[in-house]
């Protein structure tokens, strides 16, 4: 039964979320790119003690002040007990109890007896950080489901964490179907070059999966026996197996009979979207009661990528415990036609500020030139058209780390 495009994404996400694995501890340096499986809480007040923001003097009472010591970062400061005294203090050092103000070194002078005079700064920027100014002990800093990046690792280290409890990375594999495919050389004589085997693992990794090179296989011979053997073997080590081609019911399309042999349950079987409608997602019984998944991608390259970002991206988000992907709205600079009762995904390139999108050329379902020049797809909902200047949802392709449109 054909499913609405938005509903298909929601079904894929819910299936992944229900099958997400339990938490596992990972050392901070290895946590980049993972997902918090539980809230990140402050282990202590931040800062844990009053901390100087300047190089200068911690003073008590009226000036001039007599220096009675020095406090450097990493030391425990003794208290200032007498009026008219001060400690020299370094940035990051503990502010001694009894100090009434901090005076910047550049705003101070010393007389012939070595006594210090100066004025504390008046303004909005404090000269020292108070305990708990950034966070209080046990305060939730980040919720479960947060994608971990270097900034998250930094705040975790500041709190005193050695490791973080994260969701497991989904293990993904790829089976390329099609006797007509070449794995090298130029196309000709009725055969075409396989473009999905080299590119799909990269998309999967950008969505958070791990892909062992040994889990990329193909072309798989166009027989039911070969398909069934390849899928069974792949599911032994993968949480998700993607296949390319064979999603229809042609004379050499053996995916549906393979799924039947494996007692698979369809989550989605064809989606009302153009291009890419003959896509599918199935749940396959796995060891220990935890299911495995098979995503059937169409054989046409652009359609296969559309299936990836329609079904596989939300599935992988769910498996990693991340929030369901939300689509930003952009203004299209040109008219984009509708596709009747189907959602139309139109390849488009974003403006530098990311607020508008311009459709690109070479957008046939078998073409990749347009895809290579696009940042994602403008989404035109069923029964609608998009005129120049209209706001539409935008389905982004995952970017290379650090890349911006």
TrEMBL record:
<protein>
    <recommendedName>
        <fullName>Molybdopterin molybdenumtransferase</fullName>
        <ecNumber>2.10.1.1</ecNumber>
    </recommendedName>
</protein>
<comment type="pathway">
    <text>Cofactor biosynthesis; molybdopterin biosynthesis.</text>
</comment>
<dbReference type="InterPro" id="IPR036425">
    <property type="entry name" value="MoaB/Mog-like_dom_sf"/>
</dbReference>
<keyword id="KW-0501">Molybdenum cofactor biosynthesis</keyword>
<dbReference type="InterPro" id="IPR036135">
    <property type="entry name" value="MoeA_linker/N_sf"/>
</dbReference>
<dbReference type="Pfam" id="PF03454">
    <property type="entry name" value="MoeA_C"/>
</dbReference>
<dbReference type="Pfam" id="PF00994">
    <property type="entry name" value="MoCF_biosynth"/>
</dbReference>
<dbReference type="Pfam" id="PF03453">
    <property type="entry name" value="MoeA_N"/>
</dbReference>
<comment type="similarity">
    <text>Belongs to the MoeA family.</text>
</comment>
<comment type="function">
    <text>Catalyzes the insertion of molybdate into adenylated molybdopterin with the concomitant release of AMP.</text>
</comment>
<dbReference type="InterPro" id="IPR005110">
    <property type="entry name" value="MoeA_linker/N"/>
</dbReference>
<dbReference type="InterPro" id="IPR036688">
    <property type="entry name" value="MoeA_C_domain_IV_sf"/>
</dbReference>
<keyword id="KW-0500">Molybdenum</keyword>
<keyword id="KW-0808">Transferase</keyword>
<feature type="domain" description="MoaB/Mog">
    <location>
        <begin position="173"/>
        <end position="318"/>
    </location>
</feature>
<dbReference type="GO" id="GO:0046872">
    <property type="term" value="F:metal ion binding"/>
</dbReference>
<dbReference type="GO" id="GO:0006777">
    <property type="term" value="P:Mo-molybdopterin cofactor biosynthetic process"/>
</dbReference>
<keyword id="KW-0479">Metal-binding</keyword>
<dbReference type="GO" id="GO:0061599">
    <property type="term" value="F:molybdopterin molybdotransferase activity"/>
</dbReference>
<keyword id="KW-0460">Magnesium</keyword>
<dbReference type="GO" id="GO:0005829">
    <property type="term" value="C:cytosol"/>
</dbReference>
<dbReference type="InterPro" id="IPR038987">
    <property type="entry name" value="MoeA-like"/>
</dbReference>
<dbReference type="InterPro" id="IPR001453">
    <property type="entry name" value="MoaB/Mog_dom"/>
</dbReference>
<dbReference type="InterPro" id="IPR005111">
    <property type="entry name" value="MoeA_C_domain_IV"/>
</dbReference>
């Amino acid at each position: 039964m054909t499913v609405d495009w938005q509903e298909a994404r929601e079904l894929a996400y819910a299936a992944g979320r229900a099958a997400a694995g339990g938490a596992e501890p990972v050392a901070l340096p290895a946590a980049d790119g993972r997902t918090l499986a539980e809230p990140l809480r402050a282990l202590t007040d931040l800062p844990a003690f009053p901390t100087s923001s300047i190089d200068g003097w911690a003073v008590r009472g009226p000036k001039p002040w007599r220096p009675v010591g020095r406090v450097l970062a990493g030391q425990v400061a003794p208290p200032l007990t007498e009026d008219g005294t001060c400690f020299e203090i370094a940035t990051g050092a503990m502010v001694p109890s009894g100090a009434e103000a901090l005076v910047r070194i550049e705003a101070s002078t010393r007389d012939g007896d070595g006594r210090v005079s100066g004025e504390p700064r008046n303004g909005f920027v404090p000269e020292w950080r108070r305990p708990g100014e950034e966070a209080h002990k046990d305060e939730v800093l980040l919720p479960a489901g947060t994608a971990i990046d270097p900034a998250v690792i930094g705040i975790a280290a500041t709190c005193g964490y050695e490791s973080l409890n994260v969701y497991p990375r989904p293990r993904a594999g790829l089976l390329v179907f099609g006797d007509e495919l070449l794995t090298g050389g130029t196309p000709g004589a009725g055969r075409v070059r396989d473009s999905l085997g080299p590119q799909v693992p990269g998309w999967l990794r950008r969505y958070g999966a791990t892909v062992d090179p040994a889990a990329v296989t193909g072309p798989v011979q166009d027989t039911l026996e070969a398909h069934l053997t390849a899928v069974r073997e792949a599911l032994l080590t993968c949480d998700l197996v993607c296949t390319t081609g064979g999603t229809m019911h042609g004379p050499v399309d053996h995916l549906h009979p393979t799924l039947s042999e494996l007692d698979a349950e369809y989550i989605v079987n064809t989606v009302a979207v153009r291009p890419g409608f003959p896509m599918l997602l199935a749940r396959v019984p796995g060891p220990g009661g935890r299911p495995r998944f098979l995503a059937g991608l169409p054989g046409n390259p652009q359609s296969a990528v559309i299936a990836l970002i329609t079904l596989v991206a939300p599935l992988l988000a769910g498996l990693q415990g991340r929030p369901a992907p939300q689509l930003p709205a952009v203004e299209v600079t040109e008219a984009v036609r509708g596709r009747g009762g189907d959602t139309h995904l139109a390849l488009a390139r974003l403006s530098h500020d990311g607020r508008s999108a311009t459709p690109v050329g070479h957008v046939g379902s078998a073409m990749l030139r347009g895809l290579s020049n696009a940042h994602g797809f403008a989404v035109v909902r069923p029964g609608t058209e998009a005129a120049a200047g209209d706001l539409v949802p935008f389905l982004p392709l995952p970017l290379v780390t650090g890349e911006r449109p």
